[in-house]
Amino acid sequence: MSKQNPRKQTAAKQATAKQAAAKQATAKQPTGAKNPGTRPGTESAGAGGGRIPAPAAAPAAPAAPAPEADGAAAKEFSRRRLLGTVGAAGAAGLVVGGAGGAAGVSAAQDDAPKALSTLGSTKVPFRPARAGHQAGITTPLQAKGHLVAFDLAPGSDRKDAAALLRRWSRTAEELMAGRAPDADTGVALDAGPSSLTVTFGFGHSFFGRTGLTKRRPLELDPLPDFSADALDPKNSNGDLWIQIGADDALVAFHALRALQKDAAGRARLRWQMNGFNRTPGATAHPMTTRNLMGQIDGTNNPKPSDQDFDERIFVGRDADQAWMRGGSYAVVRRIRMLLDDWEKRSRHDQERVIGRRKDNGAPLTGGSEGTPMRLDANGPDGMPVIPANAHARIAAPESNQGAAMLRRPFSYHDGFREDGAPDAGLLFICWQADPLRAFTQVQRKLDRGDALSPFLRHEASGLFAVPPAAEPGDYVGRPLLEG
């Protein structure tokens, strides 16, 4: 008989010694004992203080192959051992990135459906609890907006317009409630209503096309021309106007697509504009939004708590056209900002053009954003602290016999022009009971000497009559179309 290999004898002795040690350790440990550092049912803390489930006991490692095993078997053992080590470290949150690793494990182990966040679940009613105004007028600014105008299809009449408004109202009500309308595309299938609002209005030309010229309000007469206008007729006005706003871009697009499909055969798209605002919750506390010039925009807006708010913004009960009582008039302007020119100006110069500080929106006469401007304050040089041609001074109600409008804009960026300048600015939307006494009066004054005007180009315009919200069982505009 041949002599036994010494290397095999050594390996056998080592294996026997390990088995004996394992039996001894098992005998000392009580049955059912746990890891002494962990209570049954507790969780271990991952990096960054996150709580994740304690890792389950790792399966026993496979026995090591004999030294004379072939190279492939040794490599497979090493690979399995490496994967096992990485898996254990990952389960304990001990990975590069610390908190990121812990969060990743938690997400992988928690597949239970989550409730919608506040952002997604916020719902704006299509029909107010009591007869009132359409949504999208006093609703807080949303993160994403679409403005779209339609012209009635050739040959369409009043009956066709009524059928379209009936369908649009039904679709808008479903979408704003977070439900899918008929023949839905599924674009926003996973989202909640996300503060969606859909607002409908009628342009000057709508009344002639439907034989309702006698019911067209005087307030809907075309706006006058202004010196800063460079208007494109194809992107202005229209028979019907829709404003869509939501805090989620897919929800807003979903509404746009659904309403466009509803219009097939009855109305044709005239123009569309897309805008955005800061997303709610993106700042440490709620604050007035900024425009693309970096200025806080909307500081001196009328507030619903103002005693004369309704009088300024909504049509009164004594209006000649009964169907517009409780409604409002929307002026829409696409205003391109000459950002390259603006950004060459120093911050000091920019603040004097506006009449307010850039960091916090406070008037140059001091205080905070909400502090009233002291238009009579002069500096040591005897000149007004807020320059005579400052935008905030000229647009203020105090400078316009109390004229005021509710500004509710979106910013836009449509790429770059041939000269490389950004095609960007403001989709200006303002609401008032009478455009002649609000927008037109203020814009005429701005047109004569506003320091901001050289940095702006008004490239599209529209004026629309926005009736009150639909009564239960009705559609928007029924008193006009069937009254």
Short structural summary:
The protein is an alpha+beta fold. The protein has helices at residues 6-28, 71-91, 99-109, 118-121, 158-176, 204-209, 249-262, 309-313, 339-343, 347-354, 391-395, 439-447, 478-482; strands at 43-45, 51-53, 144-152, 197-203, 240-246, 267-276, 328-337, 406-407, 410-416, 422-432, 456-466. The chain has 13 helices and 11 strands.
Helix fraction by DSSP (H/I, runs of at least 4): 25-40%
Q: Give the helices and strands as they follow along the chain.
A: HEEHHHEHEHEHEHEHHHEEEHEH
- So how many helices? 13
Radius of gyration: 34 Å
Report on this model:
α5 (158-176) runs antiparallel to α7 (249-262). The chain is α+β, with helices and mostly antiparallel strands and 483 residues long. The protein has helices spanning 6-28, 71-91, 99-109, 118-121, 158-176, 204-209, 249-262, 309-313, 339-343, 347-354, 391-395, 439-447, 478-482; strands at 43-45, 51-53, 144-152, 197-203, 240-246, 267-276, 328-337, 406-407, 410-416, 422-432, 456-466. Strands 3, 4, 5, 6, 7, 8, 9, 10 and 11 form a nine-stranded antiparallel beta sheet that branches. Strands 1-2 form a two-stranded antiparallel sheet. Mean pLDDT is 83; it is low at 1-13, 20-70 and 72-109.
List the main descriptive attributes of the protein structure presented here:
483 residues; alpha+beta; 9-stranded antiparallel β-sheet; two-stranded antiparallel ribbon; globular; disordered N terminus
